[in-house]
Write a structure and sequence with these properties.
10 strands, 239 residues, globular, four-stranded antiparallel sheet, 9 helices, alpha/beta, Rossmann fold
Length: 239
């Protein structure tokens, strides 16, 4: 049984349809990529999954339970963690304090276990040397790593990554990809929205293509990127 299944999700803002009968499933332990041009509905999709935006119609099943109408906090506690395209740390708190807050309020771990788990995440995400620095002092790569670390501190079963490689140099991107690969190897299911295709396709096994809120393709990266429709719509190539 898939760990996440979306069935005919629809959402409109007035006359603008931002999700148009979106259906696909994420298998347990899978890494799935989501691509599409700007305005395709990718961030809206994440907001529907996390409950930040309510669906107009359709069903969201997570780990066998219907969470369609659950509030965001309940979904986080159930095991859905996410990053944001623009990192949103608590700027006046240290890196370690940011993780403690995420773990204390976003997971079901006993309080006595939170500190040790956060220390492990600092090592996993390469932030141990920055633990006592204020979040406001971090550069872009380290802010992206902190955004990832805070999501991991909620102890997610599914990790939603929203353009986490955007704005990084090739070297920084490669470092981050290795971290994401390691997280995936330990069993965390991933849905990754990304424009940096070489980073995305080095991790995910399938791609979902969105266009004006519709799913226009689902399949392995090679097949999807060879599709005439995808090249015309997403890459802007006149085939």
């Amino acid at each position: 049984m898939p760990i996440l299944a979306l069935d005919q999700l629809s959402k409109s803002f007035g006359a603008l349809k931002v999700a148009d009968n979106v259906s696909f499933a994420l298998e347990k332990g899978e890494a799935l990529g989501v691509i599409g041009p700007n305005g395709a509905g990718k961030s809206t999709l994440f907001n529907l999954i996390t409950g930040n935006i309510r669906v107009d119609s359709g069903t969201i099943l997570f780990d066998g339970s219907d969470i369609t109408w659950q509030p965001p906090m309940a979904r986080c506690l159930a095991g859905i963690g996410r990053t944001f395209q623009i990192p949103q740390p608590f700027r006046k708190l240290t890196v370690f304090e940011n993780l403690l807050v995420a773990a204390a309020f976003g997971s079901r771990r006993p309080e006595r276990d939170v500190g040790d788990r956060c220390a492990d995440i600092l090592v996993e995400t390469g932030l141990l040397s920055r633990a006592n620095q204020p979040a406001s002092s971090l550069g872009l790569l380290q802010r992206k790593r902190l955004e990832l670390a805070r999501a991991l501190a909620t102890d997610p079963k599914i990790l939603l990554l929203d353009e986490i490689a955007g704005g990084l140099t090739d070297g920084e991107c490669s470092e981050l990809v290795e971290t994401i690969r390691a997280i995936h190897r330990r069993g965390v299911s991933i849905i990754w929205v990304e424009h940096v295709l070489h980073a995305l396709t080095s991790v995910v096994g399938r791609l979902v293509v969105l266009h004006f809120g519709r799913v226009i393709g689902v399949g392995d990266p090679d097949t999807i990127m060879a599709s005439r429709e995808v090249r015309e719509i997403y890459l802007g190539i006149d085939v």
